Predict the structure.
Amino acid sequence: MLYREAGQFKTTYEADQAIFPLRQDRIGIAVIAALAFVVVPLTATDFFLTSIMTPFLIFALAAIGLNVLTGYAGQLSLGTGAFMGVGAYSAYKLTSIFPDANIIVVLLASGFFSAAIGVAFGLPSLRIKGLYLAVTTLAAQFFLEWCFIRIPWLYNYNASGAIEISQREMAGIVVTGPAAAPLTQYFIVLCVTVGLTWFVSNLIRGRIGRQWMMIRDMDIAAELIGVRPLTAKLSAFAVSSYLCGVAGAMMVFFWLGAAEPSAFAISLSFQVLFMTILGGLGSLIGSYMGAAFIWILPVALRVVLPSLGFDVAAETVQHLTSMIVGALIIFFLITEPHGLARLWQLTKEKLKVWPFPYG
Amino acid sequence: MNVHVDTAAPAPTRSKGEVLLKIDNVSLYFGGVKAITNISFDIMKGEIRAIIGPNGAGKTSMLNVINGFYHPQVGTITWRGEVRRKMKPFEAASQGIARTFQNVALFKGMTTLDNIMSGRTLAMRRNFLWQLIRFGPALEEEIAHRRRVEEIIDFLEIEHIRKTPVGRLPYGLQKRVELGRALAMEPELLLLDEPMAGMNLEEKEDMSRFIVDVNEQFGTTIALIEHDMGVVMDLSDRVVVLDYGKKIADGAPDEVKSNQDVIDAYLGVAH
Amino acid sequence: MLYDIFVDPFVQMAAQPDFLLQVLWEGFVAGILYALIALGFVLIFKASGVFNFAQGIMVVFAALTLVGLHEHGVPAYLALILAIAVMGLLAYTVERVVMRPLVNQPEIILLMATIGMTYFLVGFGEFVFGGEPKSMITEELGLPTGSTAFQIGERGLLILQHIDIAAAVIAIIMVAGLGIFFNKTRIGRALRAVADDHQAALSVGISLNQIWAIVWFAAGIVALATGIMWGARSDVSFALEIIAFKALPVLILGGFTSIPGAIVGGLVIGFGEKIGEIYWGPLVGGGIESWLAYIIALIFLLFRPQGMFGERIIERV
Amino acid sequence: EDSIYVPLFTYRTGPYAGSGIPIANGMEDYFAMLNERDGGIGGVKIDYDECETGYNTQKGVECYESVKAKNPVVITPYSTGITLQVIPKASVDRIPVLSMAYGLSAAAIGKTFPWIFNAPDTYWDGASAIIKDIARREGGLDGLKGKKIGYIFLDAGYGREPIPLLEDLAKKYGFEMTQYPVAGKEMQNQSSQWLNVRRDRPDYMIMWGWGAMNPTAVKEATKIRYSMDKFYGVWWSGGNDDAAAGGMAAKGFRTLNFNGVGKDYPVIQDIKKYVVDAGKSQVEPAKFADNLYNRGVYNAMLIAEGIRSAQEHSGKKVVTAEDVRNGLEVMNLDEKRIADMGMKDFMAPLKMSCEDHNGHGPLYIVEWDGKDWQKSGEWFEPMTDVVQPLLEAAADEYVKSNAPWPERDVPCAK
Amino acid sequence: MTSQTIQAHREAHAEAPAETILALNNIEVIYDRVILVLKGVSLTVPKGGIVALLGANGAGKTTTLKAISNLLRAERGDVTKGNIRFHGKEVQALSPNELVRRGCIQVMEGRHCFGHLTIEENLLTGAYTRKDGAGAIRTNLEMVYSYFPRLRERRSSQAGYTSGGEQQMCAIGRALMSKPDMILLDEPSMGLAPQLVEEIFEIVKELNSQQGVSFLLAEQNTNVALKYATYGYILEAGRIVLDGAASALRENEDVKEFYLGVAGEGRRSFKSVKHYKRRKRWLA
Ligand SMILES: Nc1ncnc2c1ncn2[C@@H]1O[C@H](COP(=O)(O)OP(=O)(O)OP(=O)(O)O)[C@@H](O)[C@H]1O
Ligand SMILES: Nc1ncnc2c1ncn2[C@@H]1O[C@H](COP(=O)(O)OP(=O)(O)OP(=O)(O)O)[C@@H](O)[C@H]1O
Ligand SMILES: [Mg+2]
Ligand SMILES: [Mg+2]
């Protein structure tokens, strides 16, 4: 009885088109926001912030990026890792060329580079579709990875071949580098991720988002209705790569602190893909859920399994984690193939009719 | 019940006589398959033009030619007095040609509302940045179009499924949503490919009413493919009959109905 | 510069024909091995429209089972038979636990499920066999290990590894066998039907359960063969899993559903990659093999979006 | 009860597990042996604990964060990628990092990196040592003139690092160097590289390989019938499995080494007695005391000696991270201490200092006899003189690109 | 359900001869675990009967048929109540292919041809469960071709490229290839030219009378359906609201008005329907 539409009348289309038309949803979101902005900062340990929350948010952003392309525009991509890398390397270059630039500006600007590269590799999508398109994005993945190794200019000719993030300040507060407080970094990542999510949700609900979904659901019909495949697909590639680029930059600047090219390897692409699919293609909330599932669950298992009193070796924990995660992926897909977001939605639908079994 | 759709312009009267679309000597082949051979006919402004013929006669292919999905190997198409060359489908759409599909081609992952909104794509102007913040002009535009779409939803009596993903709808409603999507484009020429397949009588009557209303109220020209002879004979102004890719008859419903070739090839028994 | 790109490589080829032959042979062998991996993918894709991401780990798992059993004192041939049995069991389990509940789901969901399987098998495999690399029991299985050198011209030399020859022969036998099985039996037609539309296939009485168990088993055997061959080239470890990526451009080039496509695609990639790396690679500092195959496939796709032998993508309204 | 916490970042899973497992076993067993035999170090038990990284940088950060809270006295990241991430963090958190012969070479410069240690040698030391050994066989450095030396490497920061030094030396001594990069994804697919080797016919081959790249390279080398005694690997190419892949045909393959091979050392016997035979080790009997296992023992010994020397230096029993940093800086493993540890011939003397966090210790060559590694030739010094300027330049570069890199704020331990 | 219809229902059941080929008893279907679609449907098909299942869009006809042929699971639907007997045996637990093997095949709504297979290959997959040899299958194929000459012409085209009506013929022909005892036809007339519609029903009649095949057909074209069927059920919003012999249904006033379009004065013109009809439902 708690979760009901009844009695909530919308009198304007604005209200009807709001992100969270239901009061209960709005309350839920407010609670989550309070948790994220107040409770976590007040209570969390450094480990929780650096190893759980910050990467979770970064991955959520990357998953949203991929979701734009794969979930909303229907173009399968396996090149996310490389696009994240482009963001990271361009942010790195930007900071070394403009050492005094505001770091947030640099981050947001770096996304444009990955967007440009994304568009270039998106061009073949006009002809190549479905799984076959995966090859284009794989080509991007491996070619870019090779560039990260082979173009020393990208990493300022470091002997180590890696990019290392030095200390930067913003308004007198250290935001990057080892001296930055995990809390500061968490806040920046949280704001950027939430802000960009809001932008994306706007896009999705408007004309551009609808064009993406049209192309996804039936590209021929979309074209017959007047969607230009070129603009629709490339804009999806651009927005997606932009988000991934920013996520990649944040990953290095606010989380890892240094990165070798192998940090942007294909395994990263897959990691993000898992999050996107498992969370639910075509759902922003799903991206958060997917990121939480794929990132937090293994960490939690690693922490929890030994503390349950199982005295198991570190690698056994790893084996178990891998098996449990794999089994859970399959389990969730079987329970609800359309991802955690859909599972959540169905639960809500059930709640609406509760205590009756069906509506 | 009277559905009232307000349009800015008063309902234009049928101004027949002006040729909107002219097909000249068109032929279309797929490898060895001759889908269309040497067909000519025209569609006048404001009329309901039916295309009928046995299965595989080339009716759907004809529509595909008209809206640029197929490009005929031979022949010309004149649209509003201009000869069209290799027009892309989205260009046809932007010039006012809308259609529905024989095998429902809705956007399965989207709700009814979004599907119909998608018909408004071409009419929406606000650029990327406005879309991004979805505020001011962008929101106003969205709301304005939403209002138009709600009118169509009202008109088609599908209010109750506004927020349902179309994949879950029964077939008949899907067809109706598809019509709604085409209407949302406010087309000059509306191509309907078997809009009533899979409907029962009651629903066919409703659908007929919608089609006639669209034609009368908005002055939309309609090309209609349908296998229900009752519907075709009642609604259309002129009928063109295809068989094996060739035109075998063209004229008023009554003429066509009694044409022996048509009876042999298509109707079976005189209706 | 232009000379380096357009003339010099050919001059080199002409100058050392024996070496060119060797390069071609290596390309051939690599191509055959790529084709073997791709074959496993094709089988499953053909029969269910599932892109089996777990094929790579199945290769590792199959080979580890074989070697692991042998380490525990099981004679080589018995270990081989047991390994085949284990792959059969795996096929049965996958069908029961993963495929059956996910019938009629979009391909990306099924892809995801195979990724879940990958996670599981990685954990399970390391749990059972440990993470250390193991050497393939090439000799014990009666596979040849030596090499033969042919004198070509005065100074020329062509070295053929016997194991490579064996790999080629085995691959060809498997492809021929599978080709006959799938094209000449009614199952072949049923497979393609299943890949098109699960539900319709069910409605005409095709037993998806049985078909899937069969193809997963076939893919398991292919994985075992792949594991033996690749394992003989380096060793059997979890790193072998990444060679699955090699199959992607091959698959895409050949078309996801074509058994001959896997072979031809494999050979094109094999030859293209070796020749490209050896004659043109040095121009950019080498190591271009990691992406060359994808670029070859990409360029090819631009002209034929469904791959060489792939089924045409049907576009009709 | 008092104990000293030593986290060990290890990887027994993932594609590199083959090398990670013996190293992890070696480290664990050495500490187990100390705890059993001596009751720890200076009477304080060592509380050692593995954190599984899977050789993955993301998990490395997680490991670092999770152990940080437990007051570790030293961090051993065991992956170059993880080391690079940990260096700045540990410098701020004031935890010493010991990356034994891997990681950032420039960290040898103690002035810049007070918290980082990478004894006993850097990769540049290694590269120079191989050239030195080749020169010895060619009758001196002059003999290098006109020679062709091939360099096959994992195409990543690790494999690319020696290139500038090799190029320098090539210029200086007049040999020609050709490069054969192997992409990480192509580790097990090296036929192109070796075809190129066959065409170019280099006089010597040097390999900077890791994980599955090593056995594959050894096999491919035997396939093209490259003469194996001209084929050198860095110490990370010296796993037993790496060479065993080539079997008898790999006979003659040689790698650099800085730890003893085999079981004939008192320390190894003690481990056998107190740990392995007592059933407290994870090591498979057949793999006990293989080369990477012994290297793990060496690594653990460095940590233990750092702690011991910290205890001496600080006069405390339960030492802190700061103490261990000091301890490492003043550590001096001379012949006597080596003998006390039961490590005679197992290792060469090593001494670090405030300026030198590496030691640039002597190395020797091991040769594969078809079944096992055999010591071949004597301990010799790398060309520290050519390496030092490169290290200093790299450290300067690091400071510049990581500005504002903090000035050294810890006094030299004396 | 009004007591009257329940009564009629009971009688229909009571009358049902011993040889009932298919019987549904109080079936309830739920999609996605929350959407209740069938709310207790019971119906029977006598051996050798042609039973029509009528109802508006979304009434649940397709769902009923899929529940019988066990294709629901593939759509995440579940039969949560009731039972289904085919030849007297419960079949809910059987796999779809087992059901086909026992002689019950469904022609799915919306064609569902195998797009990449040619028309002929499509037809041959229909014979997948048959074990009676290539010769018999060949004869059967010829029979299908003689029913649908158009298919013979297009036999080597990929089904995905054929026209809608051709695909519909292909789907029906494919089902005939399995030599079934019972065919579940979902909207067979959809998209077919008028004379073909008649032909299809003639084929149904022929198979029924000559080979004793039983039919359950869901059809929107009530006119034709009731002409050929022996018995009919009318489904509204997941419930059977009316059933009876076809002839009786044809005379029912409500059926006449809503399904046959002949209210008193004969057929109305589609154009002259000037007001939108409020749907009258048996159940509010
Ligand atoms: N893209 C294509 N490739 C090959 N053949 C095609 C293609 N499109 C149509 N055809 C063939 O052209 C012929 C005409 O098809 P079309 O779809 O126009 O028929 P139709 O008149 O719409 O029939 P129906 O009433 O059954 O829908 C058919 O025989 C069909 O198989
Ligand atoms: N996969 C599904 N998931 C959720 N709801 C579904 C699903 N399939 C059908 N439904 C719902 O079940 C109801 C009955 O659908 P069904 O397709 O059985 O109707 P029908 O009588 O065959 O209609 P039509 O004449 O349009 O084919 C509809 O309200 C529909 O929305
Ligand atoms: Mg048609
Ligand atoms: Mg239906």
